[in-house]
Amino acid sequence: MASSHGRSDLRFADWMASLPQSMHTVPLANMAIPGSHDSFSFYIDEASPVGPEQPETVQNFVSVFGTVAKKLMRKWLATQTMNFTSQLEAGIRFFDLRISTKPRDPDNELYFAHGLFSATVREGLEQISSFLSAHAKEVIFLDFNHFYGVQNLHHEKLVAMLKEVFGEKLCPVVFAQEVTLKYLWEKEYQVLVFYHHPMALEVPFLWPGQMMPAPWANTTDPEKLVQFLQASVTDRRRKGTFFVSQVVLTPKASTVMKGVASGLRETITERALPGMMQWIRSQRPGENGINIITADFVELGEFISAVISLNYHHLNEDEDDDAT
User: Fold this and answer.
1) pLDDT, greater one: 62 or 244
2) Which of 114, 135, 155, 314 is catalytic?
3) Are strands 111-114 and 94-100 parallel, antiparallel or unpaired?
4) Fewer CB within 10 Å: N-end or C-end of the chain?
5) How far is Cα 7 from Cα 27, in angstroms, rounded to an integer?
6) Quick one: pLDDT at residue 313?
């Protein structure tokens, strides 16, 4: 598996375990949790075929320009530089996962994919499981939200893989408000799997996708993104769900053409970072506030520490209540 190109910060490898005791009984749906968008994309492979979800224009572009086209694609498709272990050590606890089969693959292997293919799903899950075994009080969310070319036999294979890799760490579905660190620690659960497919109704440890809504702004405009984020938090809760705020700008075809050689990070993400960080720091976790916040290039701009620090507002509010 690819090594990390980002700088991991071990201060947050055990941030959940380090939370004050008063936070142990707060529902995780009411806490601030940092996550990564297209979490697996650090390992997008330029030698791989184009993913089956890509439009014909992209397929044609690659068929004409070959490797050069894929190198340019990677600059726009790879939204992370850190591998799973480095993200976990840096404090990321939510993973946005998109799964695909490869055309004409005799092994029916499952891969992470975003335009091009990434690592095998098993490689990624085993890396995550190794971290959890070494950090027994950390809890993660795996959000399987897109499936490309995945048939029933592949879903069955993925469910069996999750059981094999995580075993007793998998948390069965309960009401979201019951899920606190105390609850999970007592039962030794560390993994909540969200599965945006009807298979979730058949397997006790697959949480239905509608319990992890993640509205998408689909804009290149930072101001529109912030307006969208604020509006979605304001009418946030279908009561009793977790909730993802995607602090993510999405390039249009014209954006890509203008900055084709620069890539996503330089053209969009870094320029918009100050405004996005300002929005994050202004938020509060809770039933009517933010919960999970995802971003591209999670090592940028103190993103992870800013999200984690929002949890300490719970403590300040509790102290204010005691004073009155």
Assistant:
1) 244
2) 114
3) antiparallel
4) C
5) 30
6) 79
Please report the DSSP string for 253-297 in residue order: HHHHHHTTTT-HIIIIIHHHHHHHHHHHHT--BSTTSB-EEEESS
Q: What is the share, in percent, of the chain residues with pLDDT greater than 90?
A: 69
Here the tokens at position 246 are 């995607």
Residue reference for tokens 């279908």: 238
Q: Which amino acid is it at 107?
A: D
pLDDT in tens, 26-38: 999 999 999 999 9
The active-site residue out of 5, 24, 37, 154 is 37
Q: What pLDDT does residue 87 have?
A: 97
**Residue ranges of E strands in 59-152:** 94-100, 111-114, 116-120, 140-148
Look at residue 209 in the predicted model and tell me its pLDDT.
96
How far apart are alpha carbons 216 and 99 in whole angstroms?
Answer: 19
**Contact assessment for residue 213 and residue 2, using Cβ atoms and an 8 Å cutoff:** no
In the chain, what is the straight-line distance between the N-terminal and C-terminal CA atoms, in Å? 54
Closest CA to 31 of 316, 309, 319: 309
Tokens 């946005």 locate to 96
User: How far, in Å, are 17, 25, 154, 163, 291 from residue 21 at the CA level?
Assistant: 9, 8, 42, 31, 19
Q: Which domains does the chain have, with CATH numbers?
A: 24-319 (3.20.20.190)
Specify whether 37 is catalytic. yes
CB 165 within 8 A of CB 125: yes
Cβ–Cβ under 8 Å, residues 191 and 219? no
Contact indicator for 217, 295 with CB cutoff of 8 Å: no
How do strand 292-295 and strand 111-114 relate by DSSP bridges? unpaired
pLDDT in tens, 221-271: 999 999 999 999 987 765 679 999 999 998 877 766 666 667 889 888 998
pLDDT band of residue 53 (cuts 50, 70, 90) is low
